[in-house]
Design a protein that fits this description.
The complex is a heterodimer of chains A (232) and B (191). With 232 residues, chain A is an alpha/beta fold. Chain A contains eight helices and five strands; from the N terminus they run βαβααβαβαβααα. Helices cover 45% and strands 15% of the residues of chain A. Chain A is globular, with a radius of gyration of 19 Å. Chain B is an alpha/beta fold and 191 residues long. The longest helix of chain B has 17 residues. Chain B is globular and about 50 Å long. The chains are: A alpha/beta (232), B alpha/beta (191). At the A-B interface, helix 4, helix 5 and helix 8 of A face helix 3, helix 4, strand 4, strand 5 and helix 5 of B.
Chain lengths: 232, 191
Amino acid sequence: MTSQQKVLLLVGSPKASQSSSDSLGTYLMEQMASKGLETEKIRIHPSVRSEEGLEKLFAACDSADILILTFPLYVDCLPAPVIKAFECVARHWKAAGERKKKMFLAICNSGFPESSQNETALAICRQFARETGLDWAGGLALGGGGAIGGQPLKSRGRMVKRVMTALDMTATALADGQPAPQKAVDLMAKGMFPSWLYTFMGDLGMKMSARKYGAQKRLRDKPYREGNAKAS
Amino acid sequence: MKAMVMDGFESGGGTAQAVYKAVEDELKSCGCEIESFRLRDLTIADCAGDFLCWMKTPGTCVVDDDNRKIARTMVNSDLHVVLTHITFGCYSSTLKKALDHLVQNINPFFRKFQGEVHHEPRYDRYPRYLAVGVLPQSDKESERIFQTLVHRNSINMYTPAYKAGVLYEHQSPDEMRQRIRGYLGEVGVRQ
């Protein structure tokens, strides 16, 4: 008799609410749960700030059969607390010695329209899997992730149809012990909008947000330029 | 020439100390004025991802801690050097925590640059970038990822020149120093 498979969702966004990383991960976990898998979710940022949080993170990672990480692209890679989690979990597993086999899948969403800008971040996740002996189940890259706005995917309508299909396919594969299929990777990479529309809406949204703070005329300020560093 | 050094090692002994000393000595011998940040001793909050440094206080993080001094020093330097252990092809979390805040030094608006969409530069010039990563021993994949990461950062940070150098813990201080001298030469800093 096989015991119920456990899936752990690790959310790597600093946002406690309205996180697009959380939206993507939560939808995927719902699909996994519907296939009879046991699911758990942990937010990385608060976890790595205390010993207690780290212990809970270690215990959850130890007991999981499938680890799924969702995170936003930060400066071409992962947010610092996610790297810290990698460092701590790797040290924990090295000290603990033998452990059961696990699969690891990563989902990276970025504020750039091109999903290809997420490739380095996903390569780092794959390297983490390689160095810690996890079975790499693939990386899903989504461009223009900000358009999800941290809302549940099911509330975002046709815009996220391809994204949901990619996650549906991924859930089916993972539940069967298989990595994410290439078709799911390709579908996710297609994104939600044409690039020109995403950047137009992004620039407009930034101006509107700045207006709320009375900062719309200062968006190109240069507060740190001292004017005394010479070009060499 | 003004050089800024971000020491992103998690602790200060052994290799970290040797690498830092070698970089400092080489920069001094090139006549650089050095400002160093030992990141493990500084107070830097995690980037909250709220973009308030773009839309509320443009160009300045709303959190008033050491991240602001680092960001200010960066845009007023001619050379930006970062030192780190390479973790899974990436920077250490200690270094990355500070680098995450450098988004305040670019503008929110999108533009096409080198065939991709990137954010506009906020300043008219940025420093050259040298990232020195340390590994216990050679790991081709880890090194490839690190070099790609530094290349990607150089695009987003509009650096006029960049180099990703990799050192190994078993190398002697003299060997490290020679390599660092070469890296500095590659970003245009020479004795």
